[in-house]
Amino acid sequence: MAVCLLRYLVRHSSKPRSLVVSGASSHGTMSTYSTVTTLSAVKTQRMQHMAVLRSGVGLAERVLNPPLQSINGNHGSGNIQSSSDNNNKDTDAAFELAIKQLNSLQSNDAAIRNSMKNARVDTKADTIKYLERSGLPLETVERLSFIHVAGTKGKGSTCALTESLLRHQGVRTGFFSSPHILFTNERIRIDGQLLAKDKFTEQFWKVYSRLWDRREHDHDMPAYFKFLTILGFHVFVAENVDVVVLEVGIGGEHDCTNIVRNVRTVGITSLGLEHTELLGCTLPEIAWQKAGIIKTGSHVFTHVTQSECLEVIRQRAKENSATLYEVPPTEDYFRSEAYAPIWQTFSNLIRLNGSLAIQLAEDWLSQSGKHQHTPNEVKMDPQLLDGLISTHWPGRCQLVEWHGMRLHLDGAHTLESMEVCTEWFEKSVRDSVNPKILIFNRTGNSGFEPLLKLLHRTCAFDMVCFVPNLATSTPNAPSQVMVRFSPEMQLDRARIIASAWSDLCATEQQKDVGQVYNTLIDAFTAIWQRFPQATDHDGQLEVLVTGSIHLLGAAISALDLIEDPKSRTDK
Question: Where is the composition biased (Polar residues) (predicted)?
Fold first, then answer.
């Protein structure tokens, strides 16, 4: 109802689109705009993407698919699949076969470490080589238009918001992101929808076969992410999208996505220490890598706050004759009498990334000649608001009710993102008397101790589960296979994390309720046995799953495999 009302107002309003027209300054005085009638409707919109319980729908679909579909009414891509299509056994089997072949391009941990010790491969030149070998010239890719986004925290969320904003303006969108939660085709979206499995499979074999047939030696194939980047470009060209919202994989300067030279709108989100073995051990070094996506003459928008990082970004922008804009706070768009009451209803998704996304979308629309916009102009209207609140970005501060549990799903894996996650969870459970449970894992080699400290002081957890990213003891579904980390390596890592948690509890003189489980099914079985009232729906458990996007996927898969939680407690 809320979204329908907003759309009606957009279609029938005779008022100008802009609430406020200001210059480059973000501190203009906001004028009142008579859209107060939308407030009661907007307040009913679930700002944290609470999934609506629907009979017969599995947890995976509730997580991945928004409860209110926002479909671009101006375009019909033929990409959207019905539930019956998603459950088609032949389609699923063909898709999984393609993913198994794709997984052969993953590298194990030893190979990755060895490559890091050797001289850096020219990733961009390598990507272009394989792109053109696959039958797609770079010049053809560059006939598309791009918005390129890098950063440590919030780059995926910013991209998702930007894509939604553009789609609600009637733009046909492509969206490339990483990693995925459950299915590899989450990484490539058309008009906000996951690329259909049959289309993914068709495009995969076309690209893979061409590259395989044109090898110059046995190992002459692109690595996993490089292949997916190339595949994404093929899809976006075939789907003839108006714009591609392109999320950087790692860093920026040397990232596979950084081969396109015609980017006019660039975003850089919050920065922090991450992938230090690849990007550098200081914030200025990381800022230099992220700013590597700045192209000649582009408009660069950022909400980076650290002065040492901003100085690096300014310098790189100057070197490329680009213009840097520090975006205003998102709250500035909601200071008018009409919109101020809505601010308190927003999730962190919008609060932290809304302004940057608005500026990126509006700048692209302006540079494409679709309407006029001054960089850092602060304005709000029902159409923009609809684009913001309709954004669905699963696995980030997402709350889903399932079998007596309030599942808090957040893939936070950096200190900055975990700060957001723990603040969100603490607010969510502040008035709850229900048992509170943490499920945590952290893959990779970066430190997890700061994350544990944040989690430890968030609340007094009644149960803490450390578990590998494994749904069951049998192999994960193809889309969730991690060649780099074997099950044994992951279990060893979980034990190390559990030991660090025990040390933290001892230091704080608090009871250690942590335990290691081999799989997510083992963990959830133990949870239901400990708190059987949840399976009878007589009570609810507050469950936080965090530390890794891959952990979320394994947890969702495990819960979908457990059809009757109560039967597990009766054993």
Answer: 68-86
| Rounded Cα–Cα distance for residues 122 and 35 (Å) | 53
The model's pLDDT over 52-99, given as tens digits with 9 standing for 90+, comes to 444 467 999 999 986 544 444 333 344 545 444 445 889 999 999 999
pTM over 0.70: yes
CB atoms closer than 10 angstroms to residue 45: 19
Alpha-carbon span 378 to 350, nearest angstrom: 15
Break the chain into its structural domains and give their ranges. Answer: 92-390, 398-562
User: Binding site for ATP, residues?
Assistant: 396, 410
Question: What gap in Å lies between CA 480 and CA 500, rounded to an integer?
Answer: 27
Distance of CA 372 to the CA centre of its chain: 29
Which DSSP letter does residue 144 get?
S
| Residue closest to 148 by CA, chosen among 242, 261, 225, 228 | 261
Asked if residue 105 lies in contact with residue 113, where contact means CB atoms within 8 angstroms, the answer is no
Question: If we measure between CA atoms, which residue out of 59, 70, 65, 99 comes closest to residue 82?
Answer: 65
SS3 238: helix
Please classify residue 49 by burial: count the beta carbons closer than 10 Å to its beta carbon, then call 0-12 exposed, 13-18 middle and 19+ buried: buried
| Helix intervals (H) in 390-486 | 415-429, 449-456
Q: Which 3 state secondary structure label does DSSP give 375?
A: coil
Contacts of 143 (CB under 8 A, 6+ apart): 237
Assigned token pair, 71: 């479909």
Which residues are annotated binding-site positions for Mg(2+)? 178, 247, 275
Torsions phi, psi of 82, nearest 5? -80, 170
Binding-site residue ranges:
178, 247, 275, 396, 410
Question: Which listed CATH number (3.30.530.20, 3.40.1190.10, 3.40.630.30, 3.30.2350.10) goes with 92-390?
Answer: 3.40.1190.10
Strand partners, 409: 398, 545
Which of 437, 489, 488 lies closest to 459, judged by CA?
A: 437
Structural class in CATH, domain 398-562 = alpha beta
Sign, CA torsion 363/365/369/373: negative
| H helix intervals, 73-122 | 83-86, 89-103, 109-117
CA distance 383 to 211: 44
| Number of other residues whose CB lies within 10 A of the CB of residue 128 | 17
Q: Is 143 exposed, middle or buried (0-12, 13-18, 19+ CB in 10 A)?
A: exposed
Q: Is 398 helix (H, G, I), strand (E, B) or coil?
A: strand
Question: Two tokens at 536?
Answer: 């009878």
